[in-house]
Amino acid sequence: MTTRHLYLARHGAADAFGELTGIGRRQAGLLGERLAGLPVDAVWHSPLPRAAASAHELARHLPNVPVTEAAELVDHVPYVPRAAETPPSWAGFFDGYDATEAASGQKLAEALVARFAKVPDTKPDTHEVLVTHAYQIAWLVRHALDAPPSRWLGLNSANTALTVIEYRNGLPPTIVMFNDMSHLPTDLRWTGFPDGTRP
Question: Can you tell me the distance from the alpha carbon of 125 to that of 133, in angstroms, rounded to the nearest whole number?
């Protein structure tokens, strides 16, 4: 049975200008070490600098694996929920999103699913790393669970946390893990989340 293994990771910690920090580089390197034992075929990354730098940093541990930009992985809001679908804590976040911007985001989200959330025709199994952003990981997890479009809200990912989804012919997608940070030491975990007490 053909299986597509997607290893989804949010980029490493970045500064206010969207550039990868020293902490982000360490996080990406540790993720690369974790992935080094897998038969990775490709590393795909968002066009944004923090994701591109993270992808190249982790790929140092994956010799001869191609690293390629994928426009579908860019950071964007994949779905603007209706007022009735929006949790109160998110209500103000969507102020200012007009119909054109919402439609553009939804089109990008559909392209992301069409490109990556399926079994490829190329060979029996593929193993691909996608270095992207929290919203895109949330959208792919939501899609894999066949949850309502607004359910991407609240599915956050820490910097370089690992989420794995498997796609097989004739079966629903399998969420193998979500937001796993076991490759990171305690002081490098939970970046990208609001401050708070964490396990």
Answer: 25
Structure tokens at 135: 């919203």
Phi and psi at residue 130, to the nearest 5°:
-115, 115
User: Look-up: residue for tokens 């779905």?
Assistant: 79
pTM of the model: 0.96
**Residue linked to tokens 């949330």:** 138
Residues 52-89 have pLDDT tens digits of 999 999 999 999 999 999 999 999 999 999 889 988 88
CA dihedral 108, 48, 142, 98 (to 10 degrees): -50
The Cβ of residue 115 has, within 10 Å, a number of other Cβ atoms equal to 15
Q: Burial letters for 39-72: b for 16+ Cβ neighbours within 10 Å, e otherwise?
A: ebbbbbbbebebbbbbbbbbbebbeebebeebeb
Largest CA distance in the chain: 49
Length of the chain: 199
